[in-house]
Amino acid sequence: MTTQYLRQFSLIVATAAGNGLELGSLRCTFNIRRGDIQTPNTCDARIYNLSTNTANLIASPEFTQLAVKVGYASPSNFALIFAGSLKQVRLGREDQKNSYVDLTAADGDEAYNFANFALTLAAGTATPSNAVQAMIANMARAALASPTGKPGGQAVSAGYIPPLSSNAPPRGRSFFGAVKDELRDLAANNDCKWSIQDGKLCLIPNTGYIIGQQPIVISPTNGLIGVPEQTQNGLEIRTLLNPALKIGQLIKLDSSNINQYRYGLTTAVAQNLRLKALIDLSADGTYYVMRANHFGDTRGNDWYTDLVCLSCDAKVQEAAVQQAAIIPANAVPRY
Q1: What is the CATH number of domain 216-325?
Q2: Does residue 73 register a pLDDT over 50?
Q3: Of 153, 219, 291, 304, which residue has the fewest beta carbons closer than 10 angstroms?
C-alpha cells in the first residue's frame, strides 16, 4: 500500500437477501476488533444524523447484515475489514443537534453459538479434512435458522485451512454437541487454532502462518505511527488504517526503533525465560499478526490500525526453558 491519503469508507447494512443501505457518506465512527482466537470478531459503529425513517428502518428486523470497507483513493487500496451479522441497533442523541444510530455486530455469531451436530464418519473416512467440511456445513445451516429470532444469519464458508493429516482411524468416529467444542478439539489435535474471519472458517498452525502471501511491509514511510512497543502480550504496532492487514498473515517491520520490554527482577527466572521465548523480537523483522483492531472517524483524526504481533518463529519449548533455568520440573515459580 503506497497511496495512503484521500480516505474512502463504506458501511452497508443489508437484509439476508442482500438488499441494503450505503451509509458511508455520513459521519461514522467505528471500532473493529479482530483476533486469531475462536471468539467472534466484533464491530461497533455509530452513524450520525440519520432521518427518523432511515433510523427506524435500520432498527427493523429485516436488516441483519453489516459490512465495512475502508481504504484510500486507489481502487486496489479499498477492501473489506468486517463482515458480520447485526446483534443490536440502538437509537439515541449526543445533544439537541446530533442524533445517532449505534450498530453492534459479530462475525460468525450464529455459527459460533448455535451450530450443533450429531454425525458419524465411517471407518476409513474420519480424516480431519472430512470432519472440518462437515463442521462447516453445520455452521452454514445454523445461519439459516437462528434461535435469536432474526431471519437470515451470517453464512459461514471455508477460509484458509492448511494441509491436515490424511490418516484415518481404523474405526469410525462420532461427533456430538456444539460444533465449536468439536472444532476446538480437532484444532488442538492438529496443532492449530481456529477462528471465523469475515464469515470464513480459518485454521492456522500454532507455529505457522497463512502461506502464499507476501509479507506486508510496515515502515515510517509506509504508514507506521510512533514507535513499536514490546509488551508481555507481543509487539504492539500502530499504523494508518490498512485493510490489507489480516489475521494470521506476516508483516515485515522495516524499522530498527522498538521500545523493548523490561522483565521483572522479582519474577522467577523460568517465568522471564518463558516470556522472552514468547515475545522475543524477530531478527529479520518478520512478525505474525495475532490481533488487528481498526478504528476511525470519517470526520475526525482517528484512522488507525493497532496490531499485536509475535515473531513468526516464536515457540515455547517448556522442557528447554525449565532446563535452562536449572529448576525441577514440578517447581512452583515464586514472585
Answers
A1: 2.40.30
A2: yes
A3: 219
